[in-house]
Amino acid sequence: MYSAEDIIAQINSPNEADRNLVKKAYDYAAEAHKAHKRYSGEPYMTHVASVGYKLAAMGMEPRTVCAGLLHDTIEDTAITSEDIGSNFGEEVLFLVEGVTKLSSVRYYGSDRHNESLRKLFVATSQDIRVLIIKLADRLHNLETLHHIPTHKQLRIAQETLEIYVPVAHRLGMGKLRKELEDLAFPYVYPKEAKRVTELLTTRFGKANEMLERERKVLQKRLAEVKLTNFHTSFRVKGLYSLYHKLKRKDWDIQAIYDLLAMRVVVTSVEDCYRTLGIVHELWRPLPKRVKDYIAFPKPNGYQSLHTTVTTQNGVILEIQIRTKQMHQESEFGVASHILYKNPKVSDDPKPSMFSNLIPTLFRPFTKREDEKETDIKSIAETPHTQKIPLWISQIGQAYNHDSENPTSDFVEDAQSDFFSSRIFVFTPKGDVVDLPVGATPIDFAYAIHSEVGDHTFGAKVNRKMVQLDTELRNGDILEIDTRKSAKPSPKWLLFARTSLARRRIRSAIENDPENQHKHNQHGHH
Ligand code: MN
């Protein structure tokens, strides 16, 4: 199990206050979870310590690391929001509550809701750090998935591929995405995973040795031309991503050219192009395989030069050339922009895909006077006219592996005003209902079932009784109390927003003998 010291050691130059905060959160979590065990039989603390460690290793700042350590306290222990707030402050509390709320987002194995779920997932998280904590949480749960009862494994793995992987992809977190995919893949597609693994091992049983040999050749050549400040590494294509490609290529592994990739990380863009020239001089490039993602980045912000070559030893290799910054971004995506103590973050001279995000990431933390519960301005409260950040509208876009031309989808999606007009709320079981902005519990009741709507007596939002005209907000959890004797009132028409609800209310009123009388008296206004 990771110790508090292990975690602190991963944080970039922590000061005394940082150390104390992380240590305090660690001890607090250990105490809170002391009676709990994981399915593996290990102390529950191993889980939250891993999540904290992963976040620190990604370069997240100490408060996010703390929230990672505390992320399961409110949901799984007697610890309350007030406890977290008074011990760790509003910001840590906000993050922990955000993660807690996200746990009610559930995948029920039907494609119907996936797109809504992805969007909801992002919309309710409100702060990118909440998503990053949730992704780290999911990664550790997948790493330990073999301990979990079989019937739960499939749901968790499926949910990962349908919801978490696209989110990680859209956030540009390539490393995390690959890890999530390859961990979930064998649970969702056991036969296919076996087939892909076999194909890969037959073809590249000794891939690492071979790649190491080619790497030395390239290193030597780069040194000869006095390109000294560079770093090389290699990777074998992820199983899940290979599976998608194999399906498109009739399972012909020979037709896949990016199985093996060599990465060259250099210091400047100029060196990237120079290195490309050197590579092409050294090894024969395949036609039409040169891609300049530096001049033309991928929609999720990915930048690199790609080329595919055949080495003297007859190995087909994809070469990826990029700067250190591009490398950071391709591995950690949006997280690479909120690295702890990165003074360049806000005045980065190079505009990047993520730069429009920065203001929302560092949005000052505000608490509303009129509310006891912690709440920062939610998406539902933002005025309709306010522009929704591009990346949010991208997130629901169908996940497309190495899509040949993702640009059209991307533009279409970016123009969608989905978020400015819809909110998502939950049933107590975690089912998602999407409603127009301004919707009230009456709209929710009719969306569930007309019988529920017709007999609505009262409503609870987030477990508190509310008036029926209460405006709902993203992420609210709703319960409707029904009574046989309850029936639609003409007043409901003043605050029902959906046409479905309004239609039902009108017809119920017209068919109600008691209201016939009133109608006759007052007529229709
Ligand atoms: Mn957890």
Mind explaining what this structure looks like?
It is a single chain. By secondary structure, this protein is an alpha+beta fold. The protein has 3 domains: 4-185, Hypothetical protein af1432; 195-332, 2-Layer Sandwich (Beta Polymerase, domain 2), CATH 3.30.460.10; 362-516, Ubiquitin-like (UB roll), CATH 3.10.20.30. It is 49% helix and 10% strand. The strands form 3 sheets. Strands 1, 2, 3, 4, 5 and 6 form a 6-stranded mixed β-sheet that branches. It has a 3-stranded antiparallel β-sheet with strand order 10-9-11. It has a two-stranded antiparallel ribbon with strand order 7-8. Strand 9 and strand 10 (464-466) form a beta hairpin. Helix 3 packs across helix 8 (128-143), helix 8 (128-143) packs across helix 10 (174-188) and helix 9 runs antiparallel to helix 10. The longest helix is centred in the first third of the chain and has 22 residues, at 81-102. The protein is globular and about 95 Å long. Residues 341-420 have low confidence and may be disordered. Bound molecules: manganese (II) ion (MN). The site of manganese (II) ion (MN) has 4 residues, from loops.
